[in-house]
Write a structure and sequence with these properties.
The protein is of the alpha/beta class. Helix content is 41%, strand content 26%. It is built from four helices and seven strands. It has a five-stranded mixed beta sheet with strand order 1-2-4-6-7. It has a two-stranded parallel sheet with strand order 3-5. α1 runs parallel beside α2. The longest helix has 16 residues. The radius of gyration is 13 Å and the shape is globular. It starts with a strand and ends with a helix.
């Protein structure tokens, strides 16, 4: 897995480059989010457009990252969930926790509204 980082309009966008996110290797998500929080980033957008498969380890990393962000007064939102990931997130009710967006412009705008 690789994560690229870019900033747009004050929002830190983490782009996950991996088709499958399973097992302990998904800890890189939480590590990268925590590094962004350490840098005092308050608006974090996790672009999962390339991810087709996630498992419980990945979901746990996402939840831990969300909690870490919230505890630091930051917001963590999701972008470009593929159909299969969206189904998993919906089935597990995680979409009631995370804000999720289909396009970057709308996601970026949501940070200025909150």
């Amino acid at each position: 897995m690789a994560i690229t980082i870019r900033t747009v309009e004050g929002v830190t966008i983490l782009v996950i480059k991996s088709r499958i996110l399973t097992g302990p290797g998904t800890a890189e998500i939480q590590t990268t989010v925590r590094a962004a929080l350490h840098n005092r980033d308050k608006k974090i957008l996790l672009n999962m457009g390339d991810v087709n498969v996630i498992d419980s380890d990945c979901m746990g990393q996402l939840v831990a990252s969300f909690v870490a962000a919230r505890n630091r007064g930051a917001a963590l939102k999701l972008l470009n969930l593929t159909k299969s990931v969206n189904q998993v997130m919906n089935t597990t009710k995680l979409l009631t926790v995370f804000e999720s967006f289909d396009d970057e412009a709308t996601a970026l705008q949501s940070f200025s509204e909150s």
